[in-house]
Amino acid sequence: MAASERLYELWLLYYAQKDLGYLQQWLKAFVGAFEKSISLSSLEPRRPEEAGAEVPLLPLDALHVLAEQLDQGDLEQTLLLLKLFIILCRNLENVEAGWGQVLVPKVLALLTGLVAELKGSAPRREDHGPCLESVALHALLLCEGLFDPYQTWRRQHSGEVISSKEKGKYKFPPAVLPNEFSAFFRACSSPIPHLQDLTRSIGGSTRGWESHRDLSKLPEAMFKSRRRLRACLALPSPDPESLQDADRLPPILLLRLVHLFGTAGGEQTWVRPGTFETSSQLFSGKHHVSPALDHFLRPCMSFLSCSLSRGELQCARLDLWELPAVTTWPFLTAPFYPKVLDQDTDAIAVHVVRVLTCIMSGSPSAKEVFKERIGYPQLQEILQSHGAPTHRLLQELLNMAVEGDHSTCPPPPIRNEQPVLVLMRWLPSLPTAELRFFLAQHLWWLCDSCPASRATCVQAGLVGCLLETLNTGRTLGARCQEQLLALLQALGSVSLRPLELRRLLRPPPGLNSGPGGAEAENARHAGAIIRALSGMARHQGPARALRYFDLTPSMAGIMVPPVQRWPGPGFTFHAWLCLHPAAVVPAPVTTRPLQRKQLYSFFTSSGSGFEAFFTAAGTLVVAVCTRKEYLTMSLPEVSFADSAWHCVAIVHVPGRRPFSQNLVHVYKDGHLVKTAPLRYPSLSETFTSCCIGFARLRTTTTPTGLPEPPVPAALAHAHPSLTRSQSIPASTGLGWGSGLVAPLQEGSISSTLAGTQDTRWGSPTSLEGELGAVAIFHEALQAAPLRVLCTLGPNEMAPFKPEGELHELATKLLLHYSPEACKNNICLDLSPGHGLDGRLTGHRVETWDVKDVVNCVGGMGALLPLLERVAAQPQEAEAGPAETHDLVGPELTSGHSTQGLLLPLGRSSEERMERNAVAAFLLMLRNFLQGHTVNQESLVQCQGPAIIGALLRKVPSWAMDMNVLMSTQLLMEQVAAEGCGSLLYLLYQHLLFNFHLWTLSDFAVRLGHIQYMSSIVREHRQKLRRKYGVQFILDALRTHYSSPQRERPLVADDLHTVQTSLLGLAREFLVRSFSADDMQVVLSFLAAVGDDGLVVSTLDLLLALLQGSLAQEPLAAFLLEPGNLEVLLALLVRPKSLPLLPDRVCKILRRLQQNERLPERSRQRLRLRECGLQGLVACLPEGTVSPQLCQGLYKLFLGADCLNLSDLMAVVQLSLQADLSVRLNICRQLFHLIYEQPDIVRLLARQAGWQDVLTRLYV
């Protein structure tokens, strides 16, 4: 309080007596009270409210008096005044009161003189006051307070982010830059001490200028000399270790000045390339290496990142032929560049790449100039010459490709494909495997992020570059090759040319020259190629167009000549198109103006006609415009923006009678999706404006009573087309202002005034998608021909050919455009009239399907060597027990209770099956054959199935696993679905029925093979019976599944399961259609096979046929024919046979005895009249007799219609060789026989030797 009263008292004394002594005392007291807030060394920001609350408001007349004291030459007095003004500027109301006009010229004049003294161009003053530097620095600090009152530059320099909303709240504007500044700037053109502090203060002022954009008043003298920039950049070079924050300020602030000068209005404020050329020369070999180089490029990149600066550099005001100088390209080619890299790795290269990205972002002309004047190969060469890149440099090149942040999810589309090619060529020479994998992975992510990126990379030739990289061989590393092959698969699914496929099929040079493991490496490489080709050929969903018009650019489309007279009464539009979903952009983001993507528009000079467009969400809108109304029908429930090719047809049907209803039908993929009443325009006028996928210059008519909105001059200059359009610009908003009424909506039908459609639906733009063949008819077509048109697909070259199904539609064609009939941007009209050739603005894209391309390199036979290469795959690729367990379940892998189980084929995904290279090859064949008749015929002509079967025999047994079996099933099912019978049966012969391929595999694979073969046989029994009937099955059974097994034998239970499965298949043949030839095969099999277990199973088959099947009568008659019964009896006398074998034979004979329908002649053979059981028993081999044999022969004796006691004595005699239990059983049965038939005793006594036999039986 005392200090304030003292100040007030001194001011009253000075005001009353006009004594400068009192003024001097007041200045010292006032400055002493606030001097602590003045800091020359700190760059910390100071808030205005920190020291401005107690600072008084100085009247303007007092300011004039004090300002006059600055010219008196007294440095002490001048310093006090400067401090006073610095403190008073803390109260922003002082700055607003016109201080700038009074103080700034005085201060700048003072500074000019001080700088001259500091440089030595003027004699120094001989006094003992404060030094000149202190006065100059305080003067500069005062300038900062005047030009940047809100401390904007200091706050941003400290890292604070100042929002535009906060800047909008600024109340007090900064001082205006006067003409005296040019003299001061020229005085500072050469190096002087403390220039860092000088430019620091100037930087504070430039921030103030930028904040308020008062740039139109910049002095003209500021733009006359380039040498001052060179002088300002030629800074003293301190020790890098002692480089402080202030040392980075001069280049930063200098660039800020250039930025502001460039954004100023007027012709004299152009930013000229010489400015950057001069700056780049400063860092050439003629000068010392300045640490400020890096700090120059950082603000340079920020300068060019500004949308205003970049736009100015890209526009016509900048000579693009001087782009190398603008892009700081000389920094990379300078001889000192390695020294800078030693200091901060690749900082300079990173900043240069960022500058290039900023300049070329969104500018096709800038990209083209850089490509022609410098070239990306030179960029790659220079970057490579400076050593190995870092992750940061590679990421900047990836950012250049997308013109943004490549690490966002999902990745942005590729907008500049040239950096991708540079990185792909650079990849093999990267020093570490980790760096190569990083780059390969990120290239795959970016290039496969969306259909647009894939198409861009394919058209740029990335596939060929990728193949060159892959040909470098093992130097890439396994992980890197995997990523590159995944990228190759993604790009090849879009397009793969014949030369590229030929290079892909050829093994890389040096693959087989490595020491050891060459075959395994070759097999792994072939397996990777197979998986890539399989992925290229795999296609799900609707077919895609191989040739199309790329209408993605906003001005792309097809201009149609005027239609003088509409030939017919109706209108039908038919086209193939592909729209991609809108990219999801993170919020907040600038709202995109409302636009409608034009599908077609046919308008007369009066504004009436047809139109159809898509909204940003992909909703189709069909419109009709009359002189007064614009009527639309939308289809929000039908989506087209799904990156798939769709067939769209729009049919306008006029009413047949006056005042009848007009209709519009919309078809998607041949199906009617919408029908609604919609007004039909008049066709009597000439259609003067006709476009397909193109934004017309004139979109509407001027409605009656609707005022034409004014067009801003700046907008009209930037977009001349808007001045020619009589519609309301979309930028005026979506609200309905005066003169406009809300649209009348009726369901999906809406109506608005003609001339307001741009406001309602947005300004027209191109289709922003891909367009295939287009046909327009002058009549309303019915649903049937439209469905046929859709069935033909997007690649049909001549749908209206005379011999075709749609030849009648040719007379109704108005025009027909096809991408295949387009050359030099002229779309030939393929309709019979040939009078409406269109002009294409855009690109015609031609792609190659790998299924078609394979016929250019030798057909399907060219793929077969891949199977031979994978036959040597290493054993670590084996699925192993765990995977087999996962594929087929625990039942089949356990080996227990497997009979009757069905293998769950088709449960595994293709990706899982492709782990086995052999299975991947079969799946690749399946994908190549799917929907391609030419490839199916090619595989048959080259004997492909036979070659595949022969090559599969070279595959190791462990590799023929469940994956191979499942892929075989998928291959045959696909061929069966295609209806190619000749190929299907060849595959059956050489793959399915070739037991040599499967009999060395695991049990689950063998059983699954038999089950699948059985299902095929059941499905095609009549066609396969002759070649793969009973004879084939039993031969395979005897060759591969009878004991003893030579290789990879099965355990007994598993072997029995396999045998039962095959015999069950043979049984189905015999049951459904009995054949004596088949039965003869069975008996021959019984006689020839040496496996008793297999014989027993076959006898069980015969016994089952004799028990209740349709074949039991003919089978019984066949078995009793001459020579056939002897086969069964021969089995009884087989030495060392299983006990079950005679039991099964006796059961069959017993079953034949019980058949009463047999003729007597056959029954006589069954009784063995010639030798009886005595002769049969006599032929039995010596040894232990089984109970089953004795029991069976005894039952045969009892089943005879006439008992023969000689046979009984032979059976009893045979039982004497058996165990005691057998003899006991025979005794019991003999007692029962005697008890039931008493006369048997008398007959038995007549038999010779009965006493000896019975005595030995009972004793």
TrEMBL record:
One of its GO terms (cellular component) is cytosol. InterPro entries: ARM-like, ARM-type_fold, BEACH_Domain, ConA-like_dom_sf, NBEA/BDCP_DUF4704, Neurobeachin_a-sol. Pfam families: DUF4704 (PF15787), Neurobeachin (PF20425). Keywords: WD repeat. The keyword Aminoacyl-tRNA synthetase does not apply. Residues 845-1136 form the DUF4704 domain. Residues 877-900 are annotated as: Disordered. One of its GO terms (molecular function) is protein kinase binding. Residues 345-503 form the Neurobeachin alpha-solenoid region domain. One of its GO terms (biological process) is intracellular protein localization. It comes from the Eukaryota. PANTHER family: BEIGE/BEACH-RELATED, NEUROBEACHIN-LIKE PROTEIN 2. This is Neurobeachin like 2. The gene is NBEAL2.
